[in-house]
Amino acid sequence: MIQESDDVIVKAVARLLVPFIVVYALYVVMHGHYSPGGGFQGGVILAASFVLLGVSHGLEKTRRRMSEKAARVVSSIGVLLYGGIGALCLILGGNYLDYAKLGKILRVTPAEARSLGILGVEIGVALAVMAVMCTVFFAIFTAEESPEDYRSVE
Amino acid sequence: MKILSLIAGVLMGAALIYGSLDMPKWGDPHSPASTHVSPYYLQHSIEHAATPNVVTTVLADYRGYDTLGETTVVFTAGMACLLLLGKRRKRQGK
């Protein structure tokens, strides 16, 4: 279990950095169409902001923003979003993950619909990766929470 | 026994290296991979998906199934991690 840091500098710098990391992560996800980046990279950067918050401000304060249960739910939602967009294309009369068919409900040309479909699945990937990273982070850092276990190992 | 496995490993490695000699050179424009789908993706990415980044188009559109599988792998790995490490926390409740 990580305790809140005593160092004012560490806490202040982390508090300053976290919003910028989140904005940068969103930029990486959204700008994947034009530059290197996308769901996987953006999701990991987004998770890094939570890890920084956890390391500097302790797990308790991080849990208030992203609980273990929320992380589990969000990771499922991410995969569901990806699969759901694929299934939606199926319902609209195309093949699975044939985003061009999304143009029927979005009222755009097939090429733009594919672009938006890519953005949709990238957001799904980003949510899943971010939540899985947070889940792993919490799982690893709360595993040592049991003092009895620890003493018996020593 | 150790010498035998060493010989087997060296033989296997030599066979693999011999097999890789037949592969096309790195970045060879005349290799089969570069003459069929790659030019097609590079030429039609913009008109098909209105996305300048071809890598993104290939990753999420042309090879969408692959990325769905990757996301599922990440998700499954996270859940497996949770199952393995969650067990220890239950014992602590005793």
What does this protein look like?
With 154 residues, chain A is an all-alpha fold. Chain A is 77% helix and 0% strand. Chain A has one domain. Chain B has 94 residues and is mainly α. Chain B is built from 5 helices and no strands. Chain B has helices at residues 2-20, 32-35, 37-49, 54-62, 64-92. In chain B, helix 4 (54-62) crosses helix 5 (64-92). The longest helix of chain B is centred in the last third of the chain and has 29 residues, at 64-92. Chain B is flat. The A-B interface holds A 32-36, 38-40, 72, 75-76, 78-79, 82-83, 86, 96-97, 99, 109, 111-112, 114-115, 117-118, 121-122, 124-125, 128-129, 131-133, 135-136, 139-140, 142-143, 145-146, 148-149 and B 47-53, 55-57, 59-61, 64-65, 67-68, 70-72, 74-75, 77-79, 81-82, 85-86, 88-89, 91-92.
Task: Spell out the key features of this protein.
heterodimer, A: 154 residues, mainly alpha, 0% strand, disordered C terminus, B: 94 residues, 5 helices, flat
Question: In summary, what is this structure?
Answer:
With 154 residues, chain A is mainly alpha-helical. Chain A has helices at residues 8-30, 39-65, 68-91, 103-106, 110-142, 147-153.
* Overall form of chain A: elongated
Helical fraction of chain B = over 70%
Q: Give the tally of structural domains of chain A.
A: 1
Helix amount of chain A: over 70%
Give the oligomeric state: heterodimer
Class derived from helix and strand content of chain B: mainly alpha
Strand content of chain A: under 5%
Question: Secondary-structure element order of chain A, as H and E?
Answer: HHHHHH
Distance between the termini of chain B: 48 Å
The main pleated sheet of chain A reads as: none
Number of strands of chain B: 0
Low-confidence stretches of chain B: none
Number of helices of chain B: 5
Tell the overall outline of chain B.
flat
What's the average pLDDT of chain A? 88
Low-pLDDT runs of 5+ residues of chain A are: 150-154
Total count of strands of chain A: 0
Largest sheet of chain B: none
Q: Which structural class is indicated by helix and strand composition of chain A?
A: mainly alpha
Q: How large a portion of the residues of chain B is in β-strands, by DSSP E?
A: under 5%
